[in-house]
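Kindly go through one protein, given below as sequence and tokens. The question is how this chain folds according to its tokens.

***
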Amino acid sequence: GREIWSPIRGGAAEAVHHGASCFSVRSLWTSSDGWGAVHSINIGAQPEPHVTFESATPRGERWVIHSEAASLEGKAGARAGGVLRVGLKRSGSGRDVAHDYSNHRSVIGQIQPQKTVHKEVLECQEHLLTAFRRTFFLDLSPPQMRGYVSKQIKELGAQGQNLSAVLWRICQAREERERIADWLTELCAPEITELGFVETELGDGILRVKEGDGTWVSARSISDGTLRFLGLMVALHTAEPDTTLFIEEVDNGLHPSRISLLVELLTNYTRHRKLQVVATTHSPYLLSQLSPEQ
């Protein structure tokens, strides 16, 4: 499958502030059907990464998962032997259900159906797991995008791996091929008029583009900026609805005069495909092109 989470830069030891023993992540997750929940998790860094606290609370409701639930009378939370005891909302009356899970990964992926566990726990779990799976970190690296790739591969890698294979699939529809070429013509220099592919007898392929003077150039020689833009387009095009894309240096390699077109592209995709994009940039001009809502 597609790589979603790349390793933490600096490793677990540098994921925390100097002198601290753990770090926390609190996030609000929503979907287009109106569902929402707050998920909180604390991670201890030493001697190896482990969960010290976790909770999930549907928007506007009482928690359904909590590792420090008061109703468990101090028996919840981190325990010996790599265990995290968690309170789960009970189906019916009585004290919340206590259950032990491994503290080496999130509790959200470990909960199993039980008669005593309220259905809201499993509904929240399913929504969060779906949201987690649809969170994609994109850190495009042109050297990873230049080679031949098996056309059987369907997923774009986090660094843009498999670009030629995924783009080949998209371009089987003529209108999609022409639309991508049109965007490239607007955004890139020199002018690009057509997309094509070189294919081998083994079923591998590599992207090539036709420039305005009729010259065909393969992915081995296409500029870094053009490859990054293609990788961004493919990621946006293939993302499922409600996906959140985190993108490093979204305007990297793009001429400042084309930034407004980049914002237009992102706006079109996020609106029509119900995506959310969270991006980093060093460009004040790009920020000035965004609306307050964006």
